[in-house]
């Protein structure tokens, strides 16, 4: 029953026009409050998943590429 409320909350928030990320977070908070889980559990899980080097490496490579592209280092490398 709580899972159905979670899905319905996500769909309603998404259809109202809320961005997907905020709709996911909001519906997760609704699920946490209705299921009786402490909110500290969800924040702990969210930040402990950031320990994965693989998940951090991909955005960092993208950031490096953007910095190199905007500072014209990439143009000098390939000329």
């Amino acid at each position: 029953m709580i899972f159905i409320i979670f899905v319905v909350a996500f769909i309603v928030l998404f259809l109202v026009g809320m961005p997907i990320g905020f709709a996911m977070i909001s519906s997760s908070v609704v699920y946490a409050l209705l299921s009786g889980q402490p909110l500290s559990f969800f924040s702990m899980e969210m930040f402990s998943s950031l320990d994965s080097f693989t998940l951090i490496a991909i955005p960092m490579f993208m950031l490096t590429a953007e910095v190199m592209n905007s500072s014209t280092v990439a143009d000098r490398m390939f000329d």
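DSSP finds five helices and no strands in the chain. The first helix runs from residue 2 to 16.
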